[in-house]
């Protein structure tokens, strides 16, 4: 997966139609169009993309804290490790 993308934050253009929502970058350039009857998909894409960096940072900090305490295999951290690995490929 390429790590290059249009910088966030993204937002949804105002005045969308019932069929199409436009996702714009902070300078109002088009990033993507969602063709559906509901604005929910575009809202979810924007929310997920805008949250990505903060999520990676939070998971990294949690795992750093765990490793400072000890380097044992804590089962409750397995999912965080798996998610962080997938997010940072």
Features:
89 residues; alpha+beta; three-stranded antiparallel sheet; 2 helices; 15% strand; elongated
Explain this structure.
- This protein has 89 residues and is an alpha+beta fold.
- Helices cover 45% and strands 15% of the residues.
- It has a three-stranded antiparallel β-sheet, covered by helices on one side.
- β2 and β3 form a beta hairpin.
- α1 packs across α2.
- The mean pLDDT is 82.
Helix segment count?
A: 2
> Poorly predicted ranges (pLDDT <50, ≥5 residues)?
none
The main β sheet shows up as: 3 strands, antiparallel
Q: Oligomeric form of this entry?
A: single chain
Shape: elongated
Give me the secondary-structure category: alpha+beta
How many individual domains?
1
Give the CA-CA distance, first to last residue: 7 Å
Range of helix content: 40-55%
How would the blueprint of this fold be written?
Elements: E1 11-12, E2 20-24, E3 30-35, H1 40-69, H2 78-87
Antiparallel strand pairs: 1-2, 2-3
Helix pairs in contact: 1-2
Summary, kept brief:
45% of the residues lie in helices and 15% in strands.
